[in-house]
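Please produce the structure of this protein holding zinc ion.
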Amino acid sequence: MSALCTDPFGLGSPAGVVPDAVQLTGDLGEGPLRVVLLGTAAGPYPAPGRQGAATAVVVGDRTYLVDAGYGALRKYAQAGLALRDLGGVFVTHLHSDHVADLLTLFLLGWGPANRGVDHQVRVVGPGPDPRDASAGTAGLVEHGLRAFGQDIGVRTRTSPRTHLAELVRAEDVSVDPVPTPVFEDDRIRVLAAAVPHPPLHLALGLRIETEHGVVAFSGDTARSRVVAELAAGADVLVHEVMDPAYYRGLGYSPELLDFLAASHTSPQEVGEVAAEAEVGCVALSHIGPPDPRAVTDDEWERPVRAGFRGRIVVGHDLTQVLPSRS
Ligand SMILES: [Zn+2]
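Below is the modeled complex.
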């Protein structure tokens, strides 16, 4: 394959072919609480080997999704998960690399056939930006469903199914840096808090509590004490990571490097946050650069290990993490 195909945006990826993951890896097997890293790439640009940000938290026969970046639906299916078991979707923020597949999930995974969505699903995420009144999570879903009105109308008329507007219940939340409950059902309780991901007005970190353990998510964030608070004592912390040295090597301007540092977390900082929170395991996801040839797993793990003695998982698409494994 030519370099043009493997590096379509000219970001300097090494030559060669990186196949996408198609089946589960990591902690194989069953468990009452499973974390499946569906997509582990940072940033909106399509990258070889990793898809956009999305993680499944599987509690028994119920699946919850945190973010739905590009490729989320396909990875969800490849993980062996069914949309009919979807218990809720939590959107950390409204950058496209976290929501590109949000509508796809419901448009393509809808209806009782093929184990699709046939029940109400709550989608919880940040509300509108008060600075320019741009849409929040509810607006994104509402406008998106309207944009696909012809398709939804035809399918509703030609096969028995409930209209998507009645099934997808999108809710805006507005929280400050103090962890606040935003969702609860018979399996999980979710707390959210604002984390620093400028210039977005609101990006969420999450804590998902279950009777089988706790899974926390940094979302996209600069190093933050809020994440450590959300993740306190968690079994698994899924943390974003960005390697500043890689982007410095690409010749990014000092201003751009400062911007990245103000909105993302270096591997050293991830280790420090994981240690501060005393989590059992930190799983790196939303990895920048996403191309697995640019930074090896060892190179990701080493700086995290400098500050953290617990388990470290360098995430790849379809990596499963069982909280009980050490
Ligand atoms: Zn992102």
